[in-house]
Design brief:
Layout (H helix, E strand, L loop, with lengths): L2 E2 L39 E6 L2 E6 L13 E3 L4 E3 H10 L3 E7 L4 H12 L4 E8 L5 H8 L4 E3 L12 H10 L4 E4 L8 H6 L4 E5 L14 H10 L3 E2 L2 E4 L9 E4 L2 E2 L6 H24 L3 E4 L4 E3 L10
Parallel strand pairs: 6-7, 6-9, 7-8, 9-10
Antiparallel strand pairs: 1-15, 2-3, 4-5, 10-12, 11-14, 12-13, 15-16
Helix pairs in contact: 2-7, 6-7
Protein name: Phosphoribosylglycinamide formyltransferase, chloroplastic
Main location: plastid
Enzyme class: transferase
């Protein structure tokens, strides 16, 4: 099987858009602060391995890395964070735009991952169709600019599709992540960011997808169908609801006496984990496109393995 890698396409930067809602307070520094001393403290890190604990000292910190480098020794191998960071530094750090319509729990998980070093990227801007939703409030509280989109007919604020694209390019956005965004993405935006827009859906697509299938409605439909399994799907976005190429899925059981709320909680738990893993691969350029147009995730540990 031959593999072809295709990168994302970025447009030129443009001037700032005045209708972008930015926080009044300055954006806080998203990078951790490091000590410049050559000798670290004697604080020890305790790691659980096969029901036994072992401690490991932290190696000297380096100011040119995103997080402290330490060597973790297990019974089977030694994994060096220094080596991992060296690989990440060779890849350009990605700028991300996240689209939300509600509380934004997946957005928060991804944001946390950008801060702790799990994701080699930064959330440059948040886009929402509901300016007062929980996700938008969380973004403003954490210094992330918020854009209202789409523009309602009677609203004085909000951007048109053309202005949104210009705004995203002004933020040098590499990838767009939909995280509970309930509006259909315009064709012009899909064309402006080919193979660069991801969505997460709370069922195993292509089952229980399409217009009208969102939130708790999905889980009620899964239970009513008698399906024994469900789970989140991450897929690329095209001009229709939930029909883009599938990139990753995670399976959870549907229990005999499940309520829609119980199933939703089980699926959401896996959503948070799966989306972070996929965004990490995306930011490290580990998404490989097979010749037949199927996207695969290249393993970090073994570049010859795909899933």
């Amino acid at each position: 099987m031959s593999i072809r890698v295709r990168g994302s396409i970025l447009g030129p930067s443009s001037s700032p858009i005045h209708s972008i809602q930015s926080p009044k307070t300055p954006s806080f520094l998203t990078l951790p602060t490091y000590f410049s001393s050559k000798v670290c403290s004697t604080k020890r890190v305790w790691l659980k391995n096969n029901s036994s604990f072992s401690s490991h000292s932290i190696l000297p910190a380096s100011t040119n890395l995103r997080r402290r480098n330490c060597v973790v020794k297990t019974e089977h191998k030694v994994v060096s964070d220094i080596e991992e960071n060296s690989v990440k530094l060779k890849v350009k750090r990605k700028n991300l735009a996240v689209f939300v319509s509600g509380g934004g729990s997946n957005f928060r998980s991804i944001f946390d991952a950008t801060l702790n070093g799990s994701v080699h990227g930064d959330i440059a801007v948040l886009v929402t169709n509901k300016y007062d939703c929980g996700g938008a409030k969380y973004a403003r509280d954490n210094g992330i600019p918020v854009i209202l989109f789409p523009k309602n007919k009677d609203a004085t604020e909000g951007l048109s599709t053309e202005n949104l694209i210009a705004a995203l390019r002004s933020y040098k956005v590499d990838f767009i992540l939909l995280a509970g965004y309930l509006k259909l993405i315009p064709t012009k935006l899909v064309q402006a960011y080919p193979k660069s827009i991801l969505n997460i859906h709370p069922s195993l697509l292509p089952a229980f997808g399409g217009k009208g299938y969102f939130g708790i409605k999905v889980h009620k439909a899964v239970i009513a169908s008698g399906a024994r399994y469900s789970g989140p799907t991450i897929h690329y976005v095209d001009e229709h609801y939930d029909t883009g190429r599938i990139l990753a899925q995670r399976v959870v059981p549907v229990l005999a006496n499940d309520t829609a709320e119980e199933l939703a909680a089980r699926v959401l738990h896996e959503e948070h984990r799966l989306y972070v893993e996929v965004v990490a691969a995306l930011c490290e350029d580990r998404i490989i496109w097979r010749e037949d147009g199927v996207p695969l995730i290249q393993s970090k540990e073994n570049p010859n393995d795909y899933r």
